[in-house]
Amino acid sequence: MATTTFDTLKFTKHLEASGVSREHAEAFSEAFKAASESQVEGLATKADLKALEDRVMGELRLNRWMLALVVAVTVIPALKGLFFH
Question: Which of left, alpha, beta for 45 (phi over 0: left; psi -120 to 50: alpha)?
């Protein structure tokens, strides 16, 4: 899971410097922090994507072998019938 840091003190001081009361600035800061944390919760990291890629590639390799086996089981008897009849 991705993590981010949010400097609530810096955000609060910036709001106070622009004329927002301390109580409002602190409330805005906490609300913004909660909202941004909830947005980050569902994000995938590079490690998550790499794990997914590895799993998908493994399944594709398995499917290739299964397809090759099906083709061999189907084609070999047909070729035997054609040439060794």
Answer: beta
